[in-house]
Amino acid sequence: MGQEKPKGSVVIIGGGISGIQAALSLAGAGYGVHLIEHMSSLGGMIPNLHRIYPLCACCKLDPRIAACEQDPNINIMLDTNVLDISGNTGNFIISLKTGNEEKTLKAGAVILSAGIEPFDPTPHDTYSYGNYPNVITSVEFEQLQRPLGPNKGILKRPSDGKTPEKIAWLQCVGSRDINKCDAPYCSSVCCMYALKEAVNAKDFNEEIETTIFYMDMRTHGKGFEEYLNEAISRDVQLVRSRVHTIDSVPGGDDLLIAYADENDKVHEENFNMVVLSVGLRPSVEAIELAKKTGVKLNKNQFVANEPFMPVSTNIPGIFVCGGLMGPFDIGESITQAAAAVSEIAAILEPESFAPPRAYPKPIKAGKKDPDILIAYHLCPGMSPGLSAVLENQAKEIPGVTAVIRVEDNILTGLTEKLKETDTNRLVFASCTPVVHKDIVEEALKLTGLNPYLYETVDLRAIDPQSATAQLKDRIRMGVARAALITPPPVKEIPVVKRALVVGGGVAGLESALSISREGYPVTLIEKEKQLGGHGRHVRATWQGYDAQKYLKDLISSVKKDKNIKVMTETTVKENRGFAGRFVTTVEKKGKGKEILHGVSILAPGGNPVKPEEYLYGKNKNVYLWSELSEKMIKAPASIERANSAVFIQCVGSREPACTHCSNFCCSFTVRTAVDLKTKNPDMNIYVLYREMRTYGEREDLYREARDKGVIFIRYDRNNKPEVNSESDQGKLSVTVYDPILERPVALKADFVSLQSAIVGTNNQELANIFRVNMDSDGFFAESPEKMRPVDASSKGVYLAGLAVYPKDTGDSITQAKAAAARALEILKQDKVQVGGMVAEVMPEKCAVCLTCVRTCPFNVPFIDHETGAAFIDPGLCQGCGMCVAECPGKAIVMSTCSDQMLTEAPSVLLNATN
Amino acid sequence: MTDNTPQIVAFCCSNCASAAANVAEGMKMTMPGNVKIIQVPCTGRIEVLHLLKPFEEGADGVYVAGCQEDSCQYVTGITKAAKRVAHVKKILEELEIEPDRIEVFNLSAGKGQEFVEMAHEMTGKIKGLGPVLP
Q1: Smallest Cβ distance to A461: which of B73, B110, B116?
Q2: By the CB < 8 Å criterion, does A637 face chain B?
Q3: Taken in order A144, A150, A153, A154, is the CA torsion positive or negative?
Q4: Residues A472 and A381 in one domain
Q5: pTM score, two decimals?
Q6: What's the number of CA atoms in the CB half-sphere (13 Å) around residue A745?
Q7: Which residue of B has its CA nearest to A769?
C-alpha cells in the first residue's frame, strides 16, 4: 500500500452537483464527509434549471441529495459559511459559522466545490435589464419554463402574463467581453442552454418564433452538434450578430432589437421577450476563501491549476472541482468530482463516522403468498392526473395491499412502507425505472427481502388519448408479473482485486497509475508496440505545457510500477463475467491468455481521420494535424521557417457523414498559431474556420492569436476553401471566400494543416466484446448521460479518453482519474452479489442433451459430471433466457421471466375487465 | 377488435424497449394504447407457445421487437426469435389465419421513433386484415 498515509475525514465546501457527487463517492470509499453549503438547501445551480440536456433534471439530482441525507457518513451543514482553512494534509482545521454560532472541524483533506454564480447584467446599460420587465436572464427563463415554477410550466412573459410569440436570446452576456464585463473568457455552456431553452419553448408551442443572436455557436460537447442540428430543424433561427442595444417599442411592452448582419446591413426587429444568456462567474465568496487560504487563482479569478494535475491546487491536500475551476458543464463537474476523490484516496486513509450499512437477515418471503406494494414516483413534468388513476386502479387489483407515492426520499419512503405494510413484492412505477433500480433493490435488502422481488412499470410515452387505459394495462402487467416472481437465489462472490485497462494512451496510463497507487494490481493492454497512443502526437496542451515531457514521465512511472503489468502488441478477444469478476481473453502474437479481473476500464483512444480532400496525400506540405505536431516535436525548424501557413478547421467533421464536432481542434490551432508567431513573428498565418470553438478560458488564447496578427477567415460548409499545388517545390495556394471582403481571396502557403475529425480507434469491436452501448457518432455511450459520465452501460466497465469523445490532454487525465475512482469503488468491496435475473438448471430434469451448452452465446453452461447435469454459473450468466426457451426438457428456469409469466401475460393484457 | 382498433401484443427486449421509450419520450412521441407490451430480457427468451398464446386470448396481431441482427446484446437472441416467428407463421397458415398477423422488427439502437412507428405500422396492417374471427 505504499508509504504510510495520514488518516482522516474530508471537508467539502459547496453542496452543488460536484460537491454532492464527491461526498457520495468518498462516503462509498469509507470516508466521513462534512458537506458544507452556504445556502439552505443542497443542489447549487441545478434546481433552477428546467431540463438538463437531454433529460429532465429532477430525478437525477433528487435521488443523490436523498442519498447524501441518508448516508450516516455524510454530515450536511446548511446555511454555513467557511471562515478559514489552515493546516496541512491529514491535519486541516476548518472554521465555520452557522448563523451566529462559530465552530471548527478537523479534516484530512479539503475539496473546494463552491461553484458558479450567473453574471448579473444589471449594471450593463446595453441590455436595459431591470428597466424593461420583458428583458430577463436565462436563469429566470428556466424558472418560467419549470413545471414547478411560478407559472406551472406555462410560458408567460413578466409584463402582462401573455404567452410570447417571438423570443430573442442574446449570447455572450457577461462573457467574451473585456470592455464592460471584465470577463474575457467564454462561459462554455450558454450556447447549449440557449438552444435547449429555444427548443423547450418550441415544445411548449411550436408556433413561438425563437431567434438566437450569437458570435460563434459553440456546441463542442458530446452529442451537442446533433442537438444544434435538431434545433435548426425545429426552426430555431440563428443570427450571427452581437446586439448593441435593446429599446422598448412605444405603446407596449415589446422590445426592439437593432442589429447588423454579417454583411453589415442593419436590421430592426420586434420581440415580445428578450432572454440574456448570462455567463458564469466563480462564486465571490469562494474566491474570498481561496485568497484567504492561499489557494492561487488565475487571471480570470478561477482556481489556478496545471493541466497534468487537473484537480489539484497549489496547496497539497486541498483539491478543487466544478465551476470554481472554470466554466464547466454538469458532466465535466461530476467527472472532476470523481477525479478529486481519486486524488484524495492517494494521500489519505479513510476515517469514517459510522460503520458500513448493515442489512437484516433475509426473511423467507417466498413462502408467503404474494402481498404487493405499488409505489410510484412522478416527475414534475408528468400529468398530476396519473396519480388518481394509479391510486384507483391499484385498489381493484387482487393481491395489492397498498399503494404509495414516493417523493424526494425514495429509499426511506420505500423501506418504511414495505416494513409497515408487511408486503413482500414491490411494483415500482416511474418515468425512468432504470434510474431507480438500485434504490429499489437497496430498499428490498434493507427490509430483509430478496432484492429481485420487484417489477418496474415505465410511465413514459403514454398516449394522452388513452392514457387511463394504457396506464391500467401497464400496472396490471406489473402486478401480474410481480405476483409470479419466486425469490431467485442470490450468491455472494469474492471480488477479484485486479483491474484491466484497455489502451496505453494518456487516459489508460493515468487510470492504471491511479488504481495501482491504491494497492491494486492492474493489467494494461496496448495493441501497438509503443505506449502513449494519440498523446505521442500532442506537442503542447492548449495552456502551453510541454505534453511530450509529461508523456515521457508518465510512461516511465507506469513501466517502473511493479503493480502494473503492461502487455503491448496485445488485443482483447473475449470478455465474460460481471462487475467484480470478469474473465478476459487477450491475444499476443497469436497466443491467447486469460486474465481474471474485477473491473474494466476502456480507453482505446482515437485518431484523426485521413481526409480525401484538400490534396491530402498528394502534396507533401499538406499535413494532418497530428503529422504537423509530430514534425514540430521532432524537427520544428522547417515549420518555423515558413513564410505562410494555412490551417483549415472542421475537415470532415460537422458534415452529414460525420456530424460531431471534434472539440479540441480549434484550441490546437490557436495554440500552434500563437507558438509559431512567437518564434517567427513575420510568418503569415491564416485560420479558415466555420465556428471558432475556443470555449472556456481557451478564448484568451484566441484573443492572443488575433493580437499577434493571426488572420481568421470564416467559411461556409457549402463554399469550402480550395487547395491547389503551385508549380514550384510543393508550394500551395488556398482560395477561400472572405465574407467581410465579400469576395474570394487567394492565400499562398508553405504548408497547410488539416484539422480533421477525431473518431474512436476500435470502438465497435470493443463495444461488442464488453457489451457496452455506443452513441450515434460511434463513441462509447455513458449511462445515463450527464450524471454518470465515466460509467459504461454495463456495470463494472468504465470509460476514459478519446474513445468517449474528443477532448484535450487535461480533460483526458481528469476523466481517467474519475474512471479509476469509480473502478476503485468496486475493487474496495470484498464481495459482490450475483444471481437474481439468471437461468438455473433443475438437475433432476436435465437429460444432458447439450442444447444449452450449444445455445448460450457466452459459453456459460457446462456439464457437471458430479451431478450428471448441466450447470449454469449464476455469476457468469447474462440473463438472456435463451437456454430456457431452447431446453427441450424444460429443465432450465428463470424466475424473473418464467413461462407462467409469459403465457399468462396476454390474458392479463387483453381480457381487462376495467 | 373493438371500434375497428386491433388488439396487438408486442414482445420487446428490455434493452431496446427502455432505450426506445427514452428517445420517444424526448421526441414527445407516444405509444398507441392498443399495443400491449410484454417485456423480455432478450427476444431469444420467447418460445413458440408464448407467441401463439395471445391469439388464443383474442389478439388480432403479435410482433416481436428486438435488436438489429448484428448488434444483439446477446448475439443470437433476435435471430432465434426471427426463426420462431417464421415457424409461427406456418402454424397460422395451417390454422387458416393470415401469417401476416405476426411479424418481427429490428430496432436500431437509439432510434426511439422506430419503436413508435412500428407500433403504428403493425396497427395499420392488422386493421387492413380485420379481426381474426369475422
Answers
A1: B116
A2: no
A3: negative
A4: yes
A5: 0.82
A6: 16
A7: B73
